[in-house]
Every structure is written in structure tokens, then in C-alpha cells.
Write a structure and sequence with these properties.
139 residues; two-stranded antiparallel sheet; 7 strands; flat
Length: 139
């Protein structure tokens, strides 16, 4: 893996923002940005953390990856190499509720994915719970 810095780092109050490309072993470039400590050697810091950044990219590309395959870059890349399968979900009676299937890959854009309708609904429900709890405390 290679790290190529893009543009000039921007110094912030406590750190510096750096834009860079991560180039994986297949020579695919992934644009990425990170805030890193002030005063460190940027190239050395990015090189030392490159595997973690690439792991984050893979997790974003495969958000359905099971937790046990998200722990390290080698874990998620091995899971992808084996086909990126999601196990079947079975009910209490042992019958298959959802069959085994391939995970969907989301192209990397260096942006947070748009929330789905389910995500939005879940967020609204969580906010409603917070507001209801606050109103009960005031009553």
C-alpha cells in the first residue's frame, strides 16, 4: 500500500487536516482525509496508519460485513476474497428467515453514505425517545 499526499495540509488549532490517496495492492487509489497531530512527519504518520485507514474504507464499502470480519484489514479482505457472503438468518424453529446472500458493495466516495429511509426513521425514533424522556422529567 502507498500513501500519496494531495495538496497542502491545513493547520487547525490542535491538529492538521491532510488529504491523501491510499493506493492498495491492486493499484486502486482511494481519496481519503484525516486529522493528524501537529508537528509529526506527515508521510511517516500516514504510512504507519495506512492499514487502519484502508480497513475503514473496506468497512464503508461493505457496511453489511459481520462484526468478526471488521476487526482488522486482513480479516475484512479475507472475507471479501471468499465472496463477501452474509450468513443465513434462521428463526427459533431453525427455519431460514433470510437466505445466505452476497453483501452489496458501495463504491468509495470519501463521503458519508446517504442515510436510508430506515436510518432516518431510526434516528427520528431515537430523538423522539429523548424528547419524551425529557418531558416526563419536567412533569
Amino acid at each position: 500500500m502507498q500513501v500519496v499526499i494531495v495538496g497542502t495540509p491545513r493547520e487547525n488549532e490542535d491538529d492538521q487536516s491532510v488529504r491523501f490517496d491510499l493506493i492498495d495492492d491492486a493499484l486502486v487509489a482511494y481519496p481519503f482525509s484525516a486529522d493528524i497531530p501537529l508537528g509529526v512527519n506527515i508521510q511517516a504518520h500516514l504510512g504507519a496508519h495506512g492499514s487502519e485507514y484502508l480497513r475503514l474504507i473496506r468497512v464503508c464499502e461493505y457496511p453489511e460485513a459481520p462484526a468478526q470480519h471488521r476487526q482488522s484489514l486482513s480479516d475484512i479482505e479475507a472475507w471479501i476474497a471468499k465472496g463477501a457472503w452474509i450468513s443465513a438468518i434462521k428463526g427459533e424453529d431453525g427455519k431460514v428467515i433470510k437466505p445466505r446472500r452476497k453483501a452489496k458493495k458501495i463504491p468509495w466516495t470519501n463521503k458519508h453514505p446517504e442515510p436510508t429511509s430506515e436510518d432516518r426513521l431510526s434516528l427520528l425514533e431515537a430523538r423522539l425517545d429523548i424528547l419524551e424522556s425529557a418531558m416526563k422529567e419536567k412533569a
